Amino acid sequence: MTAQGRNLLCSSAMLALLFATTARAQEVIALPTIDVTASRLGSGITGASTSIITSHDIERAPQESLQQIIAREAGVQTWSTFGAVNGAGTIVDLRGFGATAASNTLVLINGRRLTDIDLGGVDFSSIPRQSIDHIEITRGNSGGVLYGDGAIGGVINIVTKSPIGLPPAARIDGGFGSFNQRELNASAGGSHGPWSVSAFGSAINSDGYRENNELRQRSAIGEVRYNTAEGSAYFNLSGDDQHLGLPGARLVTPALNLVEVDPRGATTPTAFADKQGINLTAGVTRKLGDGIELIVDGSIRGKDQQTFSSLFGFDTSDARSLVTASFTPRVVATGVLGGMPSKTIAGIDFYNSDLWVKRSTELSDPPIHRYDLSQMVVAAYAQETLGIRPDTDLSFGARLQNTSLSARDKFDPTAPGAFPFDAQGRPLDRSETHYAAHLGLEHRLNDMFAVFGRVAHSFRTPNVDERIGVNAFPVNFDLKTQTSNDAEAGVRLHSGPFELQSSAYYMNLNNEILFIPFPPIGANINLDPTRRYGVENSAKLRLNEAVRLFGTLTYTRAQFREGPFAGNDVPLVSRWWGSAGMSWDVYQKLLTFDAVARYIGARRMDNDQANFQPLIPAHTIVDLRLGGEYRNLFWSVAVQNVFDVQYFDYAVASSDPTKVGTYNAYPLPGRTYMVRAGATF
């Protein structure tokens, strides 16, 4: 970063913090509380489309994975290449980004970035479900102000449970299901005086739907917290270990359809992906005065991955280590500013990531390529929400962020498996400064009806996998940063037992980044300008104390605006999808019933920017759950895909115009079941 850039960032940070702590001399009034140690989103970003998934929703869901539960919400799609065993490797897509959804949907845990700088995305299966208090979804790119790049499609914030003020308690449950799946979950927590402690653990084994689809997953989260009226301190430690077999794709041609004749077979019977992760987070909060609180926290996160694949006699392996350190002090202030109720969040973000990759034929071989990448992010931001009238809130904010990257490639032409036409990648040293901005408004016409709207600008820097590619010879580290401008408007209705939210949005993107790991390209590209627009609707109705209904309906278009594919659909984005469900307390808590139906419309296959290949077929999945509680005991029986629909939601098409109907698909399970039982203490 240049001296001028550092001075600009420091000046912006000082102004932001000063803005947050001045003009508070007037009488402080009561405003909605923000639990800033759990979420900087608080009650949501004014003007944005938001939704909340509670721990009760998760407990009662008949779906087997967090990704499937999240996909019930408006504007959310998923796709999987790994058999969807407990959701391992399933990608969540907000607002239609298809193949690059993992890099355009920002995932947080307790308000801190969980999305790494690689293409792997966040594996929700590594988070124990019982540890989750609720999940906040904020659609659109307004989250870029508070959280930085990668929030173009939206932000998913997972907030974990806290035992503050609760007596000691424990829970244990186990389950078994299809494909020899076994799982065990345990948790304990409690508080004494100012101290509280909690721990959650989960272990899952499954043979998987397909051959070479075995899953072994271990994960745990623990936290110690000290809480007083003047402030708090906490220490959080989490870790996970996963082994996942990678069965590969099933080939479909006009003459052969392995999806139909052998959907459970493995094209890569020896391929696997192993992952080990650890995350340490610590922080303190301190009240500086009436309505002003300082939060200082930081974390260090490590992730090791080892992958191996053998296809058509070519063995490839990849071993990598990623370490990310962060420091994120901020101030949250509530009070009166200029005679108006005010809520301000301002702070500084510092992230430093180091990645080491060894790419070889066998994991034990000397590396053909050794990549070393370092990325440092320094940012200052501030967001203000004002009650400009008793019935109207205005929110505005901005972030200035500098990203510095250093990338190197060391190529060994004598290593086993090295290609004679391969070469060392050109080094890259780059420093870029970008901004994000948000302006939002919400007006309450009466106690039941409100209108909202916002405009925002955000950005996404290329992740490290997009820079180093897979098959490119030689690698090209150099990619442009993706930018986005979007606008949104909507309504909220809350009338007695009925709730409705409906919004429409429009988004223009430049230099959208696409990672193409398949021959003949095997490289990374910036796409021609694209657009996304659509309408998202969600509704809830409580018929009585025992029966609750909900439903969503989404229409999305993702298109190329310019270039040779102008007007074509961006692959892997359905135009229509939706869900409908009910939750019925048949007999108090002793017997409960839940049902969810999800419709996912047809979508273009990955790699089919020319839009000439067949579509991934539409499908409808129905999931059911029957459960109950008696005293401290509980049980459930869930059936997913009740009607045994044979389907897939991800496929890669041939780009050869002479090979219409030729593609590789990744089949997903038909009807499955899961039985669980447990007790609380």
In short, what is this structure?
The chain is mainly beta.
Q: Which key terms come to mind for this protein?
A:
681 residues; mainly beta; 23-stranded antiparallel beta sheet
Task: Explain what you see.
The chain has 681 residues and is mainly beta. It has a single domain, classed as Maltoporin, Chain A. 7% of the residues lie in helices and 54% in strands. The protein is built from seven helices and 35 strands. It has a 23-stranded antiparallel sheet that branches. A hairpin with a 4-residue loop joins β27 (530-542) and β28 (547-560). The protein is globular, with a radius of gyration of 25 Å. The relative contact order is 0.13.
Write the layout of secondary structure elements.
Elements: H1 3-21, E1 50-54, H2 55-60, H3 66-70, E2 76-79, E3 91-94, H4 101-104, E4 105-109, E5 112-113, E6 132-139, H5 144-147, E7 154-160, E8 169-177, E9 181-192, E10 195-206, E11 215-227, E12 231-245, E13 250-252, H6 258-261, E14 272-289, E15 292-311, E16 314-327, E17 330-337, E18 340-360, E19 369-389, E20 392-411, E21 428-444, E22 449-460, H7 464-468, E23 482-495, E24 498-510, E25 513-516, E26 523-526, E27 530-542, E28 547-560, E29 576-587, E30 591-600, E31 619-630, E32 633-640, E33 651-653, E34 663-665, E35 672-680
Parallel strand pairs: 4-7
Antiparallel strand pairs: 1-6, 2-3, 4-5, 6-7, 8-9, 8-35, 9-10, 10-11, 11-12, 12-14, 13-34, 14-15, 15-16, 15-17, 16-18, 17-18, 18-19, 19-20, 20-21, 21-22, 22-23, 23-24, 24-27, 25-26, 27-28, 28-29, 29-30, 30-31, 31-32, 32-35, 33-34
